[in-house]
Design a protein that fits this description.
Elements: H1 7-12, E1 16-20, H2 27-32, E2 38-41, H3 45-53, H4 57-63, E3 71-75, H5 83-93, E4 99-104, H6 107-112, E5 122-126, H7 132-135, H8 141-147, H9 151-154, H10 159-181, H11 187-200, H12 207-214, H13 218-230, E6 234-237, E7 253-256, H14 259-265, H15 278-291, E8 301-307, E9 313-320, E10 323-329, H16 341-347, E11 353-360, E12 366-368, E13 371-375, H17 376-382
Parallel strand pairs: 1-4, 1-5, 2-3, 3-4, 10-11, 11-13
Antiparallel strand pairs: 6-7, 8-9, 9-10, 12-13
């Protein structure tokens, strides 16, 4: 089992927690490792039927629970959102008696079920596929760029088995369950939009153009993307705007939550990353590593991208307080001054650029003018965790 970066935080913090993340990122494993005194698995059909019919039974059962029952783990809580009302009543009546550990894969289902997300009573956390710091010596760049880092898939030593599981995940979960959650009537439109979102992952996307390409209305495309974002399958990296907004591109950059899932949706060969996609996939990896820290591991950080209407760009701008890190990703082993035009353009728009960083495929750190050049593995290992 890989040690997750938020594990110590969950172990040391005695507040109740709701841990959200896509399927198979390891939520149940992580929360189960905290040795709860009582576990309710709502993925079990029998348990689900009991509590969906009588959500109030949780209050009655905990009122009669023996004194040693203090930590309660409820898996897949979005399946019975009404349980959160009972949890609030229990926490209000006995603020120090119980600690609740809740997991869920869909904020959308919780909101749609009018769930009370217990502001002030529960800490919202997110779990993503594995990061380089969590993989440590098991990190293999080509494997990550081909198969992604879903824990059960990455830890499988058989490449064919990894590929089969990835394709099954895409077909059984993304194409069917998320489709059902979206209440999709136009199955073909949803399938086309999912494929286009995967093909656009790592790129700046205009929603009007995306809806035209998918042959669905703008509102339908917006709703489908909202569903993918609410289920944590897709992230939007906003554009850095600054003060001179007229000269900057405002469209967001899309990132699918896992590179292997992206490759499986697009039916790419899963034994290796394609050479002509290595640059895009490397940028995707760095973006995911930054985005997975945002709001949880690195609360003060905000990830954006930068592009001018004249075409100058930086892959990412990391804002930490009032400081800005300008970050560009290059799928090359050499970097020279011709690769640094984006930094010059960004300096014209940003007042305080604290660090200028190029992430590349070389093996040794370098410095070109005032720009830090980092091997990708060194950069990922040095990020906060």
């Amino acid at each position: 089992m890989y040690e997750r970066l938020i594990g110590p935080r969950l172990k040391e913090d005695r507040h109740s927690a709701l841990l959200l993340g896509p399927r198979q990122v390891g939520k149940s494993t992580l929360l189960g490792s905290l040795a709860p005194d009582l576990t309710l698995n709502l993925a079990s059909l029998a348990t689900f039927r009991e509590y969906v019919a009588q959500p109030e039974r949780l209050e009655a059962e905990l009122a009669a629970a023996p004194a040693h029952v203090k930590t309660v783990f409820i898996d897949e809580v979005q399946r019975v959102p009404a349980l959160l009302d009972g949890i609030q009543a229990i926490v209000d009546a006995h603020p120090r008696r119980f600690r609740f550990l809740l997991s869920g894969s869909s904020a959308r289902k919780l909101r749609r079920g009018h769930a009370n997300l217990l502001p002030g009573r529960i800490v919202l956390q997110y779990l993503h596929p594995l990061m380089a710091r969590e993989l440590q010596s098991d990190f293999n760049l080509d494997r990550v760029l081909a198969h992604g880092t879903l824990p059960g898939i990455y830890s499988d030593r058989d490449p064919e088995s990894r590929s089969l599981t990835l394709r099954s995940y895409v077909d059984a979960y993304l194409r069917e369950e998320i489709q059902a959650e979206a209440l999709v009537r136009d199955i073909g439109g949803y399938a086309r939009l999912l494929d286009l979102a995967a093909a656009s992952s790592g790129r700046v996307v205009n929603l009007n153009a995306l809806s035209r390409d998918a042959a669905v209305s703008y509102e339908t495309a917006r709703r489908y993307l909202d569903v993918l974002e609410d289920t944590l399958i897709l992230f939007r990296i906003p554009a850095w705007r600054g003060s001179d907004r007229a000269s900057l591109v405002a469209h967001p950059k899309l990132l699918l939550f896992d590179i292997g899932v992206r490759n499986a949706i697009l039916r790419r060969p899963l034994d290796r990353p394609l050479d002509d996609e290595r640059g895009l996939l490397l940028e995707h990896l760095v973006g995911l590593e930054l985005r997975r820290r945002e709001g949880t591991i690195w609360p003060e950080a905000r990830v954006q991208h930068f592009r001018t209407r004249r075409g100058a760009e930086l892959d990412f701008v990391l804002s930490v307080g009032r400081e800005h890190w300008a970050i560009d990703v290059k799928a090359s082993r050499q970097v020279d001054s011709r690769d640094l035009k984006g930094f010059v353009a960004f300096a014209e728009h940003a007042r305080k650029v604290t660090r200028r960083i190029v992430v590349f495929l070389g093996t040794r750190r370098q410095r070109v003018d005032d720009i830090e050049v980092w091997p990708v593995e060194d950069f990922l290992a040095d990020l906060p965790g």
